[in-house]
Request: fold
Amino acid sequence: MENILIVGNWKMNPETTEGAEALLNSLLKEIRKEKNIPEVVICPPYLYIEKFSKKLSGKKIKLGAQNCFWEEKGAFTGEISPLMLKNLNCQYVILGHSERRIYFNETNEQILKKLKLSLKLGLKVIFCIGEKKEEKENDLTFDIIKNQLRETVFKIDKKEHITNIIIAYEPVWAIGTGKNCKVNDAMSVLTFIKKEFLNVFSSFVAKKIKILYGGSVDLKNAKEYIENGFDGLLIGGVSLKPGEFTKIIKNCKEV
Ligand code: PGA
Reply:
C-alpha cells in the first residue's frame, strides 16, 4: 500500500489562513482514524506552507507546493524558489500543471529548468502532462504526451534524480469539469507512458516511476484508476472536502 500516492492540490483555496488551518485540521482528524493508509501529500498555496510544515511534522500527511521558480535566489520579483520550499521541510512540488501552462504560458523549456533545480535540491516532483480537448479530438494524445516527456523528463540523466519524478497524467479537458477520462482511455495512456520510459531508461529505473491519474477524480471513480494500474491520484476539487478525500484514501487502500 505504501506504493499508492494520493495528492491533494488545493490550488488557490481557501481564502484565509484560518480557513486553511480548519481544512487541514479536519483532514487530520478524519485520517487519524485510518490505519495503513497510502502516502498522502497536500499541496496548499505557498502562504500556508510554513504553518503547515510545523503542524504536519510527525504526521501521516506530507507537504508539497504547487509550483516553484528555476533559481535558488535572487532578483525574481514574486517568485518562490525550491530552496525556500526545501528549507520549510516541503518534500514535494507539482510542476507543469496545465493551469500554469495555460494561464502563465509556461513552456516545456521553463518547466525543465524548474524540474532540474527541484530534483537537484532533493524535492520529489509531481510532473503533470496531458492533452487538451482539441488535441484528443484530433487523435494527438500520444504525440502530445511524447513531446512533453521528451522536452522535459527525458532530458534528466541522473538515475537517482529520475526516480524522484512522479508523472501525473492529467487530460486537460478532464480537469475541474466533472468529466473524468474513461478508465480504458487512461489505461492506454498509462501503457504508452510506461513504454516511453522503457525506451529511454533501463527497466530498473523505468519501473520505479510512479504514474498518477488526475482530472475530475471523485469518490465514485477514484478506485477504478488504482485497480487498473495507476500508482495514485492527483486530486483538485475533492481534496477540499476532507470527508470525501479521506474516503478516497480509504478506498484506495482496499484495492
Ligand atoms: P480536479 O483537478 O480534481 O478538480 O479535476 C485536478 C488537478 O488539477 O490536479
In short: The mean pLDDT is 96. Residues 9, 170, 175-176, 214-217, 234-237 surround 2-phosphoglycolic acid (CB under 6 Å).
